[in-house]
TrEMBL record:
GO terms for cellular component: plasma membrane. Its main location: membrane. It comes from Paenibacillus agri. This is MFS transporter. Pfam families: MFS_1. Keywords: Cell membrane, Membrane, Transmembrane, Transmembrane helix, Transport. It comes from the Bacteria. It is found in: Cell membrane. InterPro entries: MFS, MFS_dom, MFS_Efflux_Transporters, MFS_trans_sf.
Amino acid sequence: MKNNTILYILALAVFLIGTIEYIITGVIITPILIALTINVDRKKLLVASLGVFIATNGLMFADLSYEIVLWVRMIQGASGGMATVVAMAVATRLVEKERRGRAIGIILMGLSSSLVLGVPMGTFFSERLGWRVLFIAIGLLSVLPLLIIYRKVPAIKEVDRVTLRMQLSILQDPKILTALGITLLYIGGYSTLFTYITPFLQATSSLSITEISAVLFLAGVCSFVGSRMGGQLADAKGAKFTICLGLLLQGATILPFALAGMNLFLLILVLMIFMLATWSISPAQQLLLVTLVPRNPDMALSVNTSFIQLGFALGSGLGGLVISKTSVLYLNWLGLAAVSMALLLAIWLFRTFDHE
């Protein structure tokens, strides 16, 4: 089996994990678990994480108390988050250096498609078949990538032992902190608007809810394509170029949302560029961090994943605050402010430090 096929198997695992949704425990605990297991064979760690994820899905079928279910969900969030981070790290080790961006993009295709397609599909089936059936189905489907990873992924272990001090030094590096700030801001700017995109479109256009649903499905497809394009562009033109271009296009398409709603064709065009740009940034950003921390990429990817989740939470929270105090029509201004700050940070980072 070629490594390219294994990358798509890893993406499938990430899609299944993302469909169940992350919880805050996974965001908080994953960097700690990655730090504690940094010298463990990445293949063994990935298999173990997926195994725990599958087991917790199976436990959901049992008649458990609310407290036990909460603990199981916490373990599920931690194991799922860990498997996602390790899958990205493994992907970068299975390909040549010049193809790492594309490899990360493929894994992020699984994540983006889970957020915009998997979660709605999961909600649809859980409402008709019951939430327990959804967990069991995801658990059973996850067995396939687990077996293939166990059989086909080679052992991956660092030659030199990585100490805790070396890992903590990552968070003392101004380059890493700046890169993480970019992640927090551009994701925050995206989620500020997109979390409330349905009421925003209802307020700025005459589209019916069915038409809005179709537009959002197209947005999901664009996020999927954007992840792939971003990885390929990062390999061809570099992470710096891809990040700056993505931020420029993301910012440039936020404000026109309010006017684009008056014309369906213009709305679709603006939304497609916005989604393609936003999701193309992520693989380039992950590649940048892998490049900055070549001896400890797992830790960098783990912390960045946590900042992605924090960005979603920050954007959603600020967007809700804006709506409660003013109007949904002001969301694009808040999103533009966040993305603009991300672009300024990126320009400062790339001018101050020589990465490539």
